[in-house]
Amino acid sequence: MKKIGFTTTIPVEIVFASKNIPVDLNNIFITSESPYKFLEYAEDDGLPRNTCNWIKGIYTAVMKNSVEEVIAVTQGDCSNTHALMELFENAGVKVHPFGYPFGIDNAYEYLKNEILNLCKSLDVDFEEVLKYKDRIDLIRKKLRYLDKLTVQGKVSGFENHLWLVTSTDFNGDFERYEKELDDFIGEAEARSVTERNIRLGFIGVPTIFDDIYQFVESKGVAVVFNEVQRQFSIPSVSDDFIQRYIDYTYPYDIFKRVEDIKAQIADRKIDGIIHYVQSFCYRQIQDVIIKKSLDVPVITIEGNDPGNIDARTKIRLESFIEMLSEKKV
Amino acid sequence: MVDVGIDLGSRFVKVGLKKGDYLEFKLFDTVTFYRDFVKREGENIKINLDFLDDKPGRVVATGYGRNILSFANAEIISEIKAHFKGAKVQTGCDNFTLIDLGGQDSKVIKVVDGFIEDFIMNDKCAASTGRFLENAANILKMDLSDIANSVENPVKLNSTCAIFSESEIIGKIAEGVDFKEIAAGVCESVAKRITPLVKRLKSDRYFISGGVGSIYSIRYFLEKEIGQPIEPLENCQFNGCIGCLNY
To answer: pLDDT tens for residues A43-53?
Structure first.
């Protein structure tokens, strides 16, 4: 049984079916005792200061031997991963490349091919993967329910973030994850509903800040949507395993994401959107299209280092909430 | 009793005093103000208002640091709200875009039908603010008032970083470029950095406030960039405290 790291969400059922332990390298970095040390390590090795810190975090997670092999997403996430792959190979780490299709022509066939290739690379039968799909589907269903409880006000935006973001690898053990999830849902169901005047949604990659949810929610607003974290939990209910990862919006173009965001804004009655962007990430550019496409106010918050949000970001968030409150009166 | 509005800026603290129709403003250096008038009393932080001739009535404060400090004897409102309110009171308009250029902050606020529609603040960089102008003035050994009127033949300054800009300015001096033309270049570079923020919140009418907003050459280059007139508010630097007084 090996630990197999991955650079962003992949069909995790394949890793479980191969009887290995999946590890989301982003989570290793951000939940470590000192994420800063991960960044220093990467910079000491020569990674540029003006590179996304998630990339540096992933780099260190692998170089510090957290995993034995790496699945690197070569298409559908940032191109920095290409260079990371090369560094890993150079250091003797086995790399399995995996790509999401770009464009819609033959997307299904392309993805099917990538999934079958990954199965081959990890020496697992696709039929076996489908058995794990059926088992893990029970957990995915519970996560959709947890998301519903968030909209109802029984689960906080931060709790929603945490559960959905860890569903990329189910913390390496889906049985234990499910048990903990059952306990949490049981507890959340018993809570009374917190009525909040303003409903916000987070879009963009998961934030590198520790306390942004707590800060926003302490201002009396509800965070009822975490776009990318929800996508990481693979919310598509298609029976077709391949189609499900085609419906998954994160690795594809911004237009598909905008369509999903707009539908969720309407369903969840969202008043405003916080677009989180990571410094030096190509997704920052997509902010232009997001602002043009959404009908509710959007505030863009940029983060670089892990840790607490700074005073300026607090002022901006607070003013945004005030603006929404006054509009609503 | 006098009502007090305080705008705690990064460079200056602006205090507005209002008693009926009487309105007066006071300007303090920020560090001096914190040293002389902000005191910790047990758990609380208090603004010592002994410098007032009259007894303070309602005290409302805004500005840099409001998330760091919470005052026991002042209501705190956000800067966006304070500047929006100040501009609304000073102009009597309900539809406009306000450009507020301060010591370390640049804010653009769009107001539609009397409500804040949207706002943008500079983030991560102070290269478009008063502090940058002050540094440039120091290097050029010019008064801010001389810089304020320099608009002819601006030299091109390319650095995206305020600190690198300083070495670029020194380079221009070494090349023998006229100081006034460098000063014009500094003002043009400030205007160019703010332009994208303004263009994102277009309006039929533009007002400008803040210490930097009162500088003619900044307005001149900004008007050139956006192709519309920009009207300075009457009490440009005190707009935030006027907002506090009217909140």
So the answer is: 999 999 999 99
Nearest-CB residue to A319 (from B65, B80, B123):
B80
The burial of A161, by beta-carbon neighbours within 10 Å (0-12 exposed, 13-18 middle, 19 or more buried), is given as: buried
Q: Please tell me the pTM assigned to this model.
A: 0.87
Percent of chain A with pLDDT over 70: 100
Instruction: Indicate the pLDDT class of residue B129, thresholds 50, 70 and 90.
Output: confident
Determine what percent of chain B is predicted with pLDDT higher than 90.
64
Name the residue among A312, A323, A326 with its Cβ closest to that of B119.
Answer: A323
Contacting residues of B for A212, CB less than 8 Å apart: none
Which tokens belong to A112? 């099917």
Chain A 264-293, residues with CB within 8 Å of chain B CB atoms: 279, 291
- Sequence-separated (6 or more) residues with CB below 8 Å from residue A309: A209, A211, A212, A215, A301, A303, A317
pLDDT averaged over chain A?
Answer: 95
Query: Alpha-carbon distance A119 to A300, whole Å?
Result: 39
Rounded Cα gap, residues B4 and B19, in angstroms: 9
**Could you give the 3-state DSSP secondary structure of residue B224?**
helix
Using the Cβ of A329 and the Cβ atoms of chain B, whether some distance falls under 8 Å is answered with no
CB contact under 8 A, A318 and B78: yes
Distance of residue A142 Cα from the nearest chain B Cα, in angstroms: 38
